[in-house]
Amino acid sequence: MTEEENLKIVQTIVQNYEEGKALTPSEEYLAKDIEWIVSGSIDDPLTGRYVGIEQVEQLFAIFNHIVDGGRHETKEYIVQGDKVVVCGEERIQFKNNGRNVQSSFVYVITLREGKIVQWRVIYGYP
């Protein structure tokens, strides 16, 4: 796949999420052995390593269970070969206590033959 094709796949997933069309990435874009890594604080229930489509779906089920909404804004895409980096900011609200959390994020996504094989999430809190 070309860099442009890899970018288009990632942009589609991110834009669908930002527009509320799809909170979970479509399986058509995920490799069966996908590795999804969330690097966050130790008390974040999403922090961890998820391998395979089933575990990624479980991650998003947890996310949708604990998060009530928010705003996700992409600031920049960087593409090099089979990697796409997405930088932005988000604000989410938790269902259990109504607390709002704002953070910066970086996604480092690796694709192989049009499928995402790794999605690494790195959060930064002000």
UniProtKB/TrEMBL annotation:
Signal peptide: none annotated. This is Nuclear transport factor 2 family protein. It comes from Aerosakkonema funiforme FACHB-1375. Residues 27-119 form the SnoaL-like domain. Pfam families: SnoaL_2 (PF12680).
